[in-house]
Amino acid sequence: QVQLVESGGGLVQPGGSLRLSCAASRIPFIIVTMAWYRQPPGKEHGLVATITYSGRTNYTDSVKGRFTISRDNAKNTMYLQMNSLKPEDTAVYYCRVTDSRGTYYWGQGTQVTVSS
Question: In principle, which of 11, 71, 99, 102 could form an S-S bond with 29, CB 3.0–4.6 Å?
Fold first, then answer.
């Protein structure tokens, strides 16, 4: 069975850092695109960052300069390094991967809470 396991969430003070991980397994095709989404409490989900197989990245404006998305293709794992966290970053963070057949897979979500 396909597995997409997220980890790294937690409670952090404003200005702190967290690193999220998303590890994919049992996906028989190359993961061409990986992305992080987030859903703040009471709000709709939105795209945070994407990364292609070749390493091309894109970020939503609110996280540019603070967040870094990366991937290890050999491990089918991606990361989201989050620095200078703000209370408005509080959300459930979801990873999504797309394989070369066009199939999407979602992680279970991990809670990030930024609060003093």
Answer: 99
